[in-house]
Amino acid sequence: MLGLVTLYHSKKEEALNNIEQYAPYIDQLIVWDNSPICHKEWFDINTIVYHWTGENKGIAPAMNYAWHYAEERGYYSFLVMDEDSRWEDFPEYRKAVETLFCQGQLDVFTPYIKGIDTFKTETEEYEKRLFINSGMVMPIEIFRAIGGADENAFPLDALDHDIALSIIEHGYRALCLTKHQLNHSLGQPQLMGPFHLFTPNYDRHRTYSMTRSHIICYRKHWKMMTEEDRDYLFNEIIRRKFFRIILAEPDKIGRLKALVQGIISGYRYKIRN
Questions:
Q1: Global pTM?
Q2: What pLDDT was estimated at residue 247?
């Protein structure tokens, strides 16, 4: 099992502590650092592969790099991690994944994500429709089948949704191993504005990126979109974002323009076959 973790404006102690929870239990770790400052001195480069980009190139290029690295060296699967995700029991999670792999079960596996997953864990395996990338174990065979990560359409935002839906479209499943848990939060929402609204407070660049990528994802997978998928897109990504900008966030004009530009760009984007 190959591991991949992405860094961006990282806090050294937090990032290294989180990495320590799983790094000793995988066969090789790639650290993909999108930070403007190189953090190579943080790591023992004899035990990891360190790749510094110097700019935020997102997660998709890192996943494709890990995919090709894994294929060249004969790895069967790779684990994807965010720097701020913290495991509670990774050794047991890996053992569970390996057991299912050895039984011939070709699926994508994810842990139960504390702070995001809300379903009841009544069974040890729960088939998920959408999942976040952090904690995912992806067989190389499946990643190859879906064509890897689309760097142009989803460098960062909506990549997890695109991968999840692509997996289903190609006849595979994403199984949550509910006994194994990962602590993760989506952004760091803040109370802002006179109405004290919770908002992740994304700047105009991220507002544009999120809107564009989610529109592309919707267009790419519209045939299999459920009512819940559509509700997430139009309520969370567009409508609620609009009201958060108006009622709570700074740079209102810049972010509203970015929102509109993201919608237009998403609809103009030529979908890759």
A1: 0.91
A2: 92
